[in-house]
Amino acid sequence: MAEWKKLRVLGEGSYGTVYLVLLRSIEEQKPKISLLALKTSSSYSMLREKKVFELLRGCEGIVQCYYYKCIVERGYLSYNLFMEYAPHGSLGNLIKTKLLSDKEVIVYTQMLLKGLSCMHEKGIVHCDLKPDNILLFPSWDDRTKYQLKISDFGLSKTSEEANADLGEIKFRGTPYYMSPESVRGFKETPLDIWSLGCIVIEMSTGLQQWWNIQTSDQLLCKLAFFNEAPKIPDELSYDCKDFLKKCFINDPQQRWTAKMLLDHPFIQKEYPTSLPTYNPSN
């Protein structure tokens, strides 16, 4: 590591502040200047997030963390994560500015499934997957303008931590993207799949699922006591609606995995493989 300079604030949250920074370093005896995103916080939870980033190093569809630095700033310990900078903002901002085409929704969903598949294979549950935590990078795929990468692992859990607070009924992430089992304390990989289904609806319609729910308590009741799923819009294609049904299966043990969903016809339209023919009764 070398010197860095904070240029501006990119975002703020309960788990820290993210800055755009200019990093000056020396590599192979040559000076190098990079634009990176710096997440800084005095919270000890940043050490856990650092561990998660280390486990996810090299994963496709995941924002990468390049450096970690702990410093004393104004008399307090400051934990700093230096990550890839996303020059095009977040998926949340994109959804607010334009209605995505059907092809874009498929391509972006496939990118997210790639990231989730790698994450889940390594025993990581994101626990707060939503459009604002998905960042946009220049695309290598000529089918779309952006490459999507999952970010912000402040609430993520490893398999050992997943069900540490069972029993109390409450939201353990952003309410509109939480699954019925998660509000009862079960935070395993099926939660991220439910959240993905909510994101697909939002990408397809421009509207949040549960948009007609007035209070978070009302939503909590629907999830915890009635096991309700978001309404799947009628105007979506047959394949998209079937894909969403797999994401919203009430029993988390029966809910499809990211790897299974990559083989669904909704995704196979743009990314065909030589896998066996899909049976919708499965």
From TrEMBL:
UniProt binding sites for ATP: 39
SUPFAM superfamilies, alphabetized: Protein kinase-like (PK-like) (SSF56112)
Listed PROSITE patterns: PROTEIN_KINASE_ATP, PROTEIN_KINASE_DOM, PROTEIN_KINASE_ST
Superkingdom per UniProt: Eukaryota
Gene Ontology terms: biological process: signal transduction
Record domain Protein kinase: where: 4-267
Key words, A-Z: ATP-binding, Kinase, Nucleotide-binding, Serine/threonine-protein kinase, Transferase
A molecular function (GO) term: protein serine/threonine kinase activity
Family: Belongs to the protein kinase superfamily.
Protein name: Protein kinase domain-containing protein
Organism annotation: Phaseolus angularis
